[in-house]
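BACKBONE STRUCTURE TOKENS:
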Amino acid sequence: MGCKMKKKLRVTAVFAALVLLAAVLMAIWPSLFTKYDPLAVDPLHRLQGLSAGHICGTDEYGRDIWTRIVYGTRNSLTVGFGAAGLAMILGVPFGLLAGWKGGLVDSIIMRIMDAFQSFPAVLLAILFITIFDPSVTTLVLTIALVNFPYFARIVRSNVLSIKATEYIEATRAFGAGTFYLLFRSILPNCFSAIIVQFSLLTANAILLEAGLSFLGLGIQPPAPSWGGMLSYAKAYVDSAVNYILAPTAAIFLVVLSINLIGDALRDALDPKSRTE
């Protein structure tokens, strides 16, 4: 990899890190970024355009769009990182066990993974919402249950290739037990693939949360949600284009930054990329 290409990758990684850092700060301390209440209604200032007082305009109830984007960041990041984290916690042990044991155990675990992957996320969300109230917890659980098999499959494939290497055989010959081999020799070599999958799932979970909220299955109004904002904004796309562009830009920038950071971490942790 040439120096120019590496420099470009560093620049994009820094940009992505800054965007994600800003999003995290918005989620933790939204009051640092706006002075308005995201639920405050002002009928006298409905569907205003961009102005000094409202940098992204106002919605059909006179609420500040920028403020609702800022406060909606917490829900989006909670669903994104929460679903990816739960899926990783569920999937990695199954992948380790299936790849290490092989045979019948591997076949049973993989058929279980197939069963979970056969459920479409939207249909599973509808099922959960009919049982539980629509909430961030419901979304996290739904997205994690649909996607944790991806972690299991990725870890399994890595374990199958790693356990056949000579250094694993050498470690075993020196008397290393199963626990040491799995968690000190094999699992650390799976981190690169796990991190990439984590970043991809986080981005996909944010997109899925926005889609479910757009359909009315996610974060319920009047709580701020990027997908919910898009759902209401579609009726005003001709008269208030800023209403639909603002949450779209928020989703695009956050998802892009997570994917770029995932790629940068993969390159940093992959020994092959460092030697090129």
User: Anything to note?
Assistant: The radius of gyration is 22 Å. The chain has a mean pLDDT of 85.
